[in-house]
Design brief:
The protein has seven helices and no strands. It has helices spanning 5-29, 35-61, 73-81, 87-110, 116-131, 138-144, 148-176. It is globular.
């Protein structure tokens, strides 16, 4: 079963976004002195880089074209919300993005036309994402120590943007790949 154009575009979006996430976490790990942030960001960087590598490998293995020019999910968020500068913005956005990624990968797996190698790759990534998310995750623990009113305002801002971005990407998938169905990922 060959990759569809839609699936190839999505895999490149996922790949480029995972790579961008790794780069962002790597920059964070090089710019702070808090040991909790350093450990968490470094591990998170490694996990995201591993996911980018897995996606790159599955695209190549299946004969697809790896396209580093396809935008990242982060680009869509920064268009509406700007580039996070405050730690609370960065951490909250990271959590919103992680939730969106999990939702997108799960939705992707619901399609009947997912290549078996892609299915295995996304399932592995989902397991990794679930392992470093949730109440005991490093980001959640840091957010829990921040002023609640600041966190609430930041969450509201990025959740609104998240909904807009998801809607825009769903519309794009429907318009760019109408022949491949309207099942939504992103």
């Amino acid at each position: 079963m060959p990759l569809t154009k839609r699936e190839l575009w999505l895999l490149n979006l996922y790949r480029n976004s995972e790579l961008q996430g790794a780069l962002l976490m790597g920059r964070l790990a090089r710019s702070v002195t808090n040991p909790d942030v350093l450990v968490g960001a470094t591990r998170h960087c490694a996990t995201e880089a591993s996911h980018a590598a897995l996606l790159t490998e599955v695209i190549a293995k299946l004969g697809g074209t790896i396209d580093p020019s396809i935008e990242t999910i982060q680009m869509h968020y920064s268009q509406d919300g700007g580039i996070p500068k405050a730690m609370v913005d960065l951490l909250v956005l990271s959590e919103i993005l992680e939730a969106r990624v999990l939702m997108s990968y799960r939705e992707h797996l619901q399609r009947s036309d997912v290549h078996p190698n892609v299915r295995r790759t996304l399932q592995r990534i989902i397991q990794d994402e679930e392992a470093h998310s949730g109440e005991n995750g490093w980001v959640e623990q840091l957010i829990a120590g921040m002023p609640p009113e600041q966190v609430a305002a930041t969450l509201a801002k990025w959740r609104d943007i998240d909904e807009k971005v998801a809607e825009q990407l769903h519309s794009r998938l429907a318009s760019d790949f109408p022949e491949e169905g309207t099942h939504l990922e992103c």
